[in-house]
């Protein structure tokens, strides 16, 4: 499976990504669920709060059609040095972080940005530019696979809970 963008994607469900072990994952397996897609890092000043609150969101909503999709990213100040696979899983376990489903490390900006992130940025542009500014940028995706909101790295995961609730009721 290539990491090329699907031709004319209509939703996040059109994308295929790799999990942290390199296995192919079609995002259509998340159909009908609200998604929080986030680029994570282990050594960022925002890590502890985000890991803690993403874990709380995961625990609260794991049985309510909400999934967190975490994409490790080392593009900002090399703050995610862990390798994919066991090293990544061990890091998250040691950090007591259950940040949902964890995927292969990606780039979120530039020509080599993951196709999924190009799609997310196209659908939910940022303030001043569409580029991802730092670790822990969060995208909220509705049950139809449409990106409906984008939150800055400094936005606490707890502060997006009301939006998640709205999408669950929709």
Task: Itemize the secondary structure elements and their pairings.
Blueprint: E1 16-18, E2 24-26, E3 34-40, H1 47-61, E4 66-72, H2 86-94, E5 101-102, H3 115-123, E6 138-141, E7 147-151, H4 161-169
Write up this protein.
The chain has 170 residues and is an alpha/beta fold. The protein has one domain: Glutaredoxin (3-Layer(aba) Sandwich), CATH 3.40.30. Helix content is 25%, strand content 18%. The chain has four helices and seven strands. A five-stranded mixed sheet has the order 5-4-3-6-7, covered by helices on one side. Strands 1-2 form a two-stranded antiparallel ribbon. A hairpin with a 5-residue loop joins strand 6 and strand 7. The radius of gyration is 15 Å and the shape is globular. It starts with 15 loop residues before the first strand and ends with a helix. The model has no long low-confidence stretch (mean pLDDT 92).
